[in-house]
Amino acid sequence: MDYMLRTNTKEQMEQKLIDAALLEVRTVDGQEVKLPVSGVYIDHIGTITKPAVTEGEGEDMIITIPSTTDSRWHTNIRVAFELTEEQIAALPQVDPPPAIPYRVFI
Fold first, then answer.
1. How confident is the prediction along the chain (106 residues), in pLDDT tens digits per residue?
2. Residue 103 and residue 47 in contact, taking contact as beta carbons nearer than 8 Å
3. How far apart, in whole angstroms, are the C-alpha atoms of residue 44 and residue 85?
4. How far is residue 23's CA from residue 98's CA, in Å, rounded to a whole number?
5. In the prediction, which pLDDT does 49 show?
6. Contact partners, residue 70, CB within 8 Å, separation at least 6
7. pTM, whole model, 2 decimals?
8. How many alpha carbons lie under 13 Å from residue 54 in its C-beta half-sphere?
9. How far apart are CA 66 and CA 23, in angstroms?
């Protein structure tokens, strides 16, 4: 199952994933690292700048470059097992999900 998540910062996102038991903190070679648990795949997207919009074709094509950026932190996760209701409730899901996602798992 795939989930599209959003928080204000990467640190908040990582804490939400830790709270949902999908990311864990380990010590590797004396350094603290955050790693997904087995069966969880994380795609940190970060902030999103909306893409240009094109209308028409050829010489009549109009390209509109939006000046909007969503400066919140975006992350997609893919989970290869069923989450509990508590885990799902802990995830800061994008609501409503985008009609055209910026990035997806393939």
1. 999 999 999 999 999 999 999 999 999 999 999 999 999 999 999 998 876 777 788 888 877 776 677 889 999 999 999 999 999 999 999 999 888 787 888 8
2. no
3. 23
4. 24
5. 80
6. 47, 48, 49, 50
7. 0.79
8. 6
9. 35
Q: What is the 3-state secondary structure (H, E, C) of 36-102?
A: ECCCEEEEEEEEEECCCEEECCHHHCEEECCCCEEEEEEEEEEECCCCCHHHHHHCCECCCCCCCCC
The tokens 């609501």 sit on which residue? 95
Q: Are 19 and 53 in contact (CB under 8 A)?
A: no
